[in-house]
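User: Here's a chain of 124 residues. Predict its fold as tokens.
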Amino acid sequence: MDKIANKTAQSEANFKLVANGCSSGISWIDTTLTGNQSGSSPALIIPLASDTTSTTSYIGMGFKRKATSGDTFLKPNSTEYIRWSASEISTDGLEMIVALRETNAGQGVPGKFRALATFNFSYQ
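Assistant: Prediction complete.
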């Protein structure tokens, strides 16, 4: 729990979204996010109240582009988006970070965490 509360690297994981099989004519890709948004920390996605397999409290997950500093997470269920660069589209992929964070500072309860985030893509 201390790693989440202190926002250490151990509370984060890197991953990559890759545009595979796309035509070479794509000029842009925008990525948005949907999920069960925290009321107290709207940039975080939390487990559904009906999901009894998730036993944490006051913990959420946030997603951001790896190059973004701090806790500037992509806000779910909003018009915010990440626009991919040309190299991210063609070869590199979009490097991302998912981080577990407390939704209310000092109130996080450890346990099993399970929440659903859906990435949505628009392109041209």
